[in-house]
Design goal:
Order of helices and strands: HHHH
Largest sheet: none
Number of domains: 1
Number of strands: 0
Structural class: mainly alpha
Low-confidence stretches: none
Strand content: under 5%
Distance between the termini: 15 Å
Length: 100
């Protein structure tokens, strides 16, 4: 079975977490999705590129989540989340996923 790259897991966590929070109107449920995907992605990054890259990409994941909030006031919620997810996925590809 093919292994899903960490960047795909991270982007899915950002998008899925927001989607769950928005459509259920329960932000903690979205947080659970976000945290679970972040944990899986961090493990993949550590396995593929080492602890330093995993720490940097995990920080980018958290920054993408946090940064999407103020950006949403400028461009809208979905474009903000999709942009953050794309940025994290691109960083993941550059540092970890392409090594596999």
């Amino acid at each position: 079975m093919a292994r899903i790259p960490g960047g795909v897991v991270a982007a899915s966590g950002l998008i899925g977490g927001y989607g769950v929070a928005r459509f259920t109107k329960k932000r903690p449920l979205g947080g659970i999705v976000l945290a679970a995907a972040g944990g899986v992605a961090a493990r993949r990054w550590r396995e593929d590129a080492g602890a330093k890259a995993a720490a940097a990409l995990s920080a980018a994941y958290v920054a993408g989540f946090a940064g999407s909030h103020p950006l949403a006031k400028k461009v809208g919620a979905w474009p903000s989340v999709l942009g953050a997810a794309g940025a994290v996925a691109a960083a993941s590809w550059a540092l970890a996923d392409r090594r596999r």
